[in-house]
Amino acid sequence: MLMLMLLSGRRNRQWDRSPSSALTSLVAGARSPHLRMGGSTHLPSQVIDMLPVLVVHGGAGHIPKERSEKSTAGVCSAVRAGYAILQGGGSSMDAVVEAVSELENNPSFNAGCGSVLNVKGEVEMDAIVMDGKTLGSGAVSAVRCIANPVQLARLVMDKTSHACLTAEGATQFASAMGVPTVPQESLITEYSRMRWKKNLAPDANPVECQMGKMGTVGAVAVDSDGNIACATSTGGMLNKMEGRVGDTPCIGCGGYADNKIGAVSTTGHGEAIMKVTLARLILFHMEQGQSVEAASDLGLAYMKSRVDGLGGVVTVDPQGHWAARFSSPQMSWGAAQKDTLHYGLYTGEHFTQRIDVPH
Fold first, then answer.
1. Element (H, E) at 334
2. What confidence score (pLDDT) does residue 46 get?
3. Cα separation of 145 and 308, whole Å?
4. Whether 351 contacts 344, CB under 8 Å
5. Measured distance CA(330)–CA(230) in Å, rounded
6. Nearest to 302, CA basis, from 273, 329, 322, 269
7. DSSP-derived secondary structure letter, 113
8. CA–CA separation, 132 vs 225, rounded Å?
9. In angstroms, rounded to a whole number, what is the distance separating the alpha carbons of residues 318 and 333?
């Protein structure tokens, strides 16, 4: 292993050259369980030192070299935005929604204003949030004219007794909540339109071509009170059938959060992720005593062996250990903990710098 340290603004790059691993992660600190006294949760000092923590992904797949810098910069910006909320005493839910909203507002990613197009050349987006304290969740699917689907998903959780609203029903709910609609054209980039036209060809492979676009975005966090949350948002699969809904809004697939175990946000081929309920599968392995990185690896390996699916995840546990793991060629990811920004894109790559140093 070759390690170049980046401290006080100088870059630190770690390369894992192990032939047995096509995955990347970082886990900090030693395990320490929560202590429960008088019906409330008290966090040991070792855990408090690890919190808060936020981990963000900008999608797994193959990111063209000319777009990789935008991917990394976008993820780091989202990490800073979400971590600022945690530093100010905000909740993990506030932080993950803020981070994902930032990525939805960045046309470089397959979410919000950068969403890929369906077979008719239209945008249909999915999103989910989940609160690990209550197991409350909210999701939207196949929404068309909403700038920030993740914020609408949170309203579904907070303002309804339902877990998911779809298509026109979700749009009507948005209107009732005072969420403005935006023109469809404002969510379509020239890059997305170009790739849509290119992949209308009879011999095009939408799953393969999807890997040329920075994908589904998501975040997981643990706040200073030890509460955990996740959020995931996507424009879906390139040139998908109208009405297709993938893994993102499905609880246990696109994301899952439970204060007793941890949280996961996923990215990759939605149909494969749904078949193995990837997010909940990883948390199952954590329940069995696996670390965040080992559990993530086991889930991704099972998805590859069982249904030939590639993808990536960001994972966190209640003690603040975290991982960013992927079986695809690349995944843009970033994390913030102890005022340090961590980020990477390629297998085995890991940079660090102070969170207050501009990227």
1. strand 330-337
2. 67
3. 33
4. yes
5. 21
6. 273
7. G
8. 12
9. 20
Decide if 267 is catalytic.
Answer: no
CA distance 140 to 158: 13
Q: Given 216, 234, 248, 267, which residue is catalytic?
A: 216
Dihedral angle at the C-alpha atoms of 80, 82, 88, 90, nearest 10 degrees?
-170
Q: Return the structure tokens found at 100.
A: 């994902």
Indicate the residue type of 228: I
Instruction: Report which of 103, 26, 117, 11 is spatially closest to residue 57, judged by C-alpha positions.
Output: 103
- Does 52 sit behind a cis peptide bond, omega within 30 degrees of 0 on the bond before it? yes
CA-nearest of 250, 220, 218 to 232 is 218
What CA–CA distance (Å, rounded) separates 339 from 328?
29
* DSSP category for residue 181: P
Cα dist from 281 to 2, 113, 165, 175, 284, whole Å: 32, 31, 24, 36, 5
For the entire predicted model, the pTM comes to 0.87
Cβ contact 114:149 at 8 Å: no
Contacts of 230 (CB under 8 A, 6+ apart): 96, 128, 129, 130, 132, 218, 219, 220, 221, 255, 256, 257, 263, 264, 265, 279
The angle formed by the CA atoms of residues 196, 97 and 338, to the nearest 5 degrees, is 115
The angle formed by the CA atoms of residues 93, 231 and 173, to the nearest 5 degrees, is: 85
Six-digit token string for 307: 């249904």
| Helices 149-159, 92-104: inter-axial angle, 10-degree rounding | 150
CA distance 85 to 354: 17
Distance between CA atoms of residues 305 and 320, nearest Å: 30
Q: Which of 138, 122, 40, 52 is nearest to 335 (CA)?
A: 52
The per-residue pLDDT for range 273-322, each reduced to its tens digit, is 999 999 999 999 999 999 999 999 999 999 999 999 999 999 999 999 99
Query: pLDDT tens-digit profile of 144-154?
Result: 999 999 999 99
- Per DSSP, the three-state class of 290 is coil
Render pLDDT for 17-72 as a digit per residue (tens, 0 to 9).
333 334 444 444 333 334 333 333 556 666 778 999 999 999 998 887 878 889 99
